[in-house]
Amino acid sequence: ASRKACAMGSSEKREIIIYTSHAAQYSVGEEVNVLAKQSIGIMAVILCYVVPLVVLVASLIIANVLGCNDGYAAAIALGSTALYYAVLGIFHKRISKKVVFTISKL
Questions:
Q1: φ/ψ (deg, to 5) at 58
Q2: What DSSP character marks residue 102?
Q3: Residue of 44, 42, 36 lying closest to 101 (CA atoms)
Q4: Dihedral through CA 65, CA 68, CA 72, CA 77, nearest 10?
Q5: Which of 13, 41, 57, 103 is the most exposed place for a label (fewest CB within 10 A)?
Q6: 52: Cβ–Cβ under 8 A, 6 or more apart, which residues?
Q7: CA-to-CA distance for 75 and 82, rounded, in angstroms?
Q8: 45-56: b (≥16 Cβ within 10 Å) or e
Q9: Phi and psi for 32 in degrees, rounded to 5?
Q10: One digit per residue, pLDDT tens: the chain, 106 residues?
Q11: DSSP string, 24-61
């Protein structure tokens, strides 16, 4: 079940850093279970997919209502979405502090 929740069942290996007081129990290269709260996954989906979609559509509608032609409206919508991702990148460290992973042996 956890495999489906993480990267849609992707089997590629990923490297993440987990801080634990039980680090001595694990060795480099050992395969382990890495878990995160479901709320963290939901937050990630909202921040990475839902909010940018809302920004894109809202800015496109607003630009059209303000009388911009379709080309300018599309450019404004894409620029607004890019700006959102830039702001998200600036706050990456603050957001990543809220993401907590746990580790356990297989």
A1: -65, -45
A2: E
A3: 36
A4: -10
A5: 13
A6: 81, 84, 85
A7: 10
A8: eeeeeeebeebb
A9: -140, 165
A10: 444 444 545 566 777 777 788 888 888 888 888 888 888 888 889 999 999 999 999 999 999 999 999 999 999 999 999 999 999 999 988 888 887 788 888 8
A11: GG--TT--EEEEE-HHHHHHHHIIIIIHHHHHHHHHHH
Q: At which residue do the structure tokens 């479901």 appear?
A: 38
Residue with tokens 């746990």: 102
Which residue reads 């607003």 in tokens?
62
Phi first, then psi: give them for residue 17, nearest 5 degrees. -105, 125
Provide the residue type at 87 as one letter.
V
C-alpha gyration radius of the chain: 19
Tokens of 9: 């069942």
